[in-house]
Each structure stands twice: as structure tokens, then as C-alpha cells.
Design brief:
7% strand; 4-stranded mixed beta sheet; CF(1); hydrogen ion transport; 270 residues; Glutaredoxin; ATP synthesis; alpha+beta; 14 helices; 3 domains
């Protein structure tokens, strides 16, 4: 995904991430509802064309997707409405973007319940276990095998064990391969986990050095803001505007947010 579509996806992820932090363990439900939307888009070319038509009014497309989702969680409807209002370089990119948000929702639920590391390890082991199983790999993604049978095979591979998020994702990768080989989807999920892990590290560039107590207090402030424990890494640069710059994964806390954290900065300096 490139160009306009990539920009639309990044913007959607930025809007959805605070929702996922607030949702906690409910993220898995949001993800499953978004998967249903992916399935609807994949099964209907006319729907994809309608929802990605740049000449169609955004409000009309948002109303259509809201009707399509019916009794889905309002947070899912809002996320989907934002996606269909955006611009897409290709109609297939919309379904890819919805899937990306769905994967993120399930992984965020694992992060919330403290099983994200377990999910990463289980997906890694699953991929390794399939390395020498060519026929099994084929059965997990080939269109000639019914989706239910592919999902059941993935369930048997998990053997009823593992984190809930792992089982959901392992089955989803088989039920809806979307043109990808099974192990490719597992690899993609591992990449998404790596990105999510990076968001637990806050790189703080400060105009002056922070001592251990100040770093700990800043870590507490960021943990409350992001809803999870944060590891603080401090770089010193006397030219930093405002005296403090914080980056968590791809997100940079800009001057507007820093203004709201000004009182925290003063406490740190005291």
C-alpha cells in the first residue's frame, strides 16, 4: 500500500489507537467485527467500488457502511466511517486497511491483558512448526479447501492451547487468507507485534539531563497517558524546542501536547 492509501491508513491508525487503549480487552470484539467488514468487502466488488468512489459524498458512504455494520459496536462504526471517507489509490486497499485495524485491535487486546509477548512467541513457534509441513501449509490457504475446514485445521494445530488472541489470529489467517500464504500472514502479524512492542518504549529528548527519579516520574505520567507501562530512554539535546520531546513508536508528542504536560515538566525540574 503506497501513496494516498498509505496516508489514509496511517491517519486511521492514529485515530483508532486511542480507542483501542480505552477498549482494553474489548479490542478482540472490535477486531472480530472489523473482520466481518473485511469479508463483506472481499465478497462484493460493487461494494468496494461504491465505498472507494472519490466522487461519492463521504456522508453517504459513511451512512452505507453504518447500515452494513448494523448492530456493531459504535467504535467499529466510527472507525469504518472514517475509512470510507478517506481516499484510496485502489479499491482493494480499503479492505486491506480494515484488516490492518482488525489485526491491531486483536493485538491491542492481548497487550491489555498482558499476553502480547506470549502471542508473539506462539506465532513464532507456529510458523516454525509449519516450516517442514508443505502439505499442511497448502491446506491452510488453498481456495479449493473450504474456509471452515481451513479454520478447523488451524484450531487443531493450536490444540486448544495458547493465548486467546493467538487462537483468534491463527484461525483468521486460515479462514481468510486473502491471497496470502498462511505463513506470510503469520509473518505479517509478527511484524505488527514488533511495531506494537516499540510503542512501549518512550524516547525522550530533553534540553537537560533527567535524573533517575525524574525519569521514573515521567514514566509514570506516560504510563497513565498510554494505559501501559513505558520504558523511558533519555537523550540530551539543549536545542529541543520546549525543553522536552517525547516519541512513542511513530507518535511524536508535539508542542500542543507538551503544553498540556508543562506542569509535569515543572515537577520534573523541581
Amino acid at each position: 500500500m503506497r501513496g494516498t492509501s498509505r496516508a489514509s491508513l496511517v491517519a486511521a491508525e492514529g485515530r483508532f489507537e486511542p480507542v483501542l487503549r480505552e477498549a482494553g480487552a474489548q479490542g478482540r470484539l472490535l477486531g472480530e467485527q472489523l473482520f466481518a467488514l473485511v469479508d463483506a468487502l472481499d465478497s462484493s466488488g460493487s461494494l468496494r467500488r461504491t465505498l472507494t468512489d472519490p466522487s461519492a459524498a463521504g456522508d453517504a458512504k459513511a451512512a452505507l457502511v453504518a447500515r452494513l455494520l448494523g448492530a456493531a459496536d459504535p467504535r467499529v462504526v466510527e472507525a469504518a466511517s472514517g475509512l470510507v471517507r478517506a481516499r484510496w489509490s485502489a479499491e482493494e486497499d480499503l479492505a486491506d486497511a480494515v484488516e490492518q485495524l482488525a489485526f491491531s485491535a486483536v493485538l491491542a487486546s492481548a497487550e491489555s491483558d498482558g499476553t502480547l509477548e506470549q502471542v508473539a512467541e506462539e506465532l513464532f513457534r507456529l510458523g516454525r512448526a509449519l516450516a517442514g509441513q508443505r502439505e499442511v501449509r497448502r491446506l491452510l490457504y488453498e481456495d479449493s479447501v473450504h474456509a471452515q475446514a481451513r479454520g478447523d485445521l488451524a484450531d487443531r494445530l493450536m490444540n486448544g492451547t495458547g493465548a486467546t488472541a493467538t487462537r483468534v489470529l491463527a484461525r483468521r489467517a486460515a479462514v481468510a487468507p486473502r491471497g496470502r500464504r498462511y505463513v506470510a500472514t503469520i509473518g505479517h502479524l509478527e511484524d505488527l507485534i514488533a511495531e506494537r512492542r516499540s510503542r512501549t518504549v518512550a524516547t525522550v529528548t530533553s534540553a537537560a539531563a533527567l535524573d533517575a527519579a525524574q525519569q521514573a516520574r515521567l514514566g509514570d505520567i506516560l504510563a497513565r497517558a498510554y494505559g501501559r507501562e513505558m520504558q523511558v530512554q533519555v537523550l540530551v539535546d539543549p536545542h529541543v524546542l520546549g525543553g522536552l520531546r517525547v516519541q512513542v513508536g511513530p507518535e511524536v508528542i508535539d508542542a500542543t501536547v507538551l503544553a498540556r504536560l508543562a506542569d509535569a515538566r515543572r515537577r520534573l525540574a523541581s
